[in-house]
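Provenance and format

Records in this collection were gathered into a single text stream. Each protein contributes a sequence line and a token line. The two records reproduced below are adjacent in the stream.
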Amino acid sequence: MKPVLSKGFFALLEEAEQAVESLTPEQLMESRGDDKDLLLVDLRDIRELQREGKIPGAFHMPRGMMEFWIDPESPYFKGIFAEHSRWVFYCNKGWRSALTTHTAMQMGVTHIAHLAGGFSAWVDAGGEVEEVPKR
């Protein structure tokens, strides 16, 4: 039996995209070099990174760990999030990153954005890509 949802992912995505700051690949390319306090966070599955590469210097965080890794009260907190005051999340198409950015905002994060169109848009815009070796 098909689940009955009161709100599907497209509705959640629309809400998130209205609430979050979205950067184009060109805006991100322009600001990356100037903003030493920027943490670029790749939310894709490790298999996606190994298959397609990642934006140079990006930190990998599986989307399912975000709430735990960014919260200083969590036993899973990652100190890299305390080292940077501005974060930009990205995924493949910009869907996961919009939803994740919206959730982080609900947790109180203020200096945050996501890459509109995701890694695919980055590549299409001629953005640099670095290989991620298989472990």
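Adjacent record:
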Amino acid sequence: MSYLCESISKASILAVLSASLVFASNPALAFKGGGPYGSEVTRGQDLTGKDFSGQTLIKQDFKTSILRQANFKGAKLLGASFFDADLTGADLSDADLRGADFSLANVTKANLSNANLEGALATGNTSFKGSIITGADFTDVPLRGDQREYLCKVADGMNPITGNETRETLLCK
């Protein structure tokens, strides 16, 4: 009886170790990333230059991904997570980013022209330095004081969808 229990215990341990080795060697098997972007993983990936323009990617998970120069022009990204992602030089113009999470994201030199960011999160060390924000709507977006001050210096235009002026949505003086 004890031999049988010992064999079962060894088999169980081997099964767990085998499974962990499979997941460790292929991170794509460890998680599916979330969101509707097919079965492709978009979380923690290098998606530099990828074209997502015009796509509907509601609640898509781009956490910790590298999205430099990615094209999201006109994409519907409601509730998408860009937590700790690198969006340097990304095109987010005309995108619907309501409720998106940009916490800790690098959004420098991005094009946010006419983007709707109503209710998006931009907490922590999120940076919009060098970004184009003409016509962007930042209604109810929590921003650090230094980021709000910087964005107010470059803010202009009116969002074509919401009709809100960028400076007003940033609460510029």
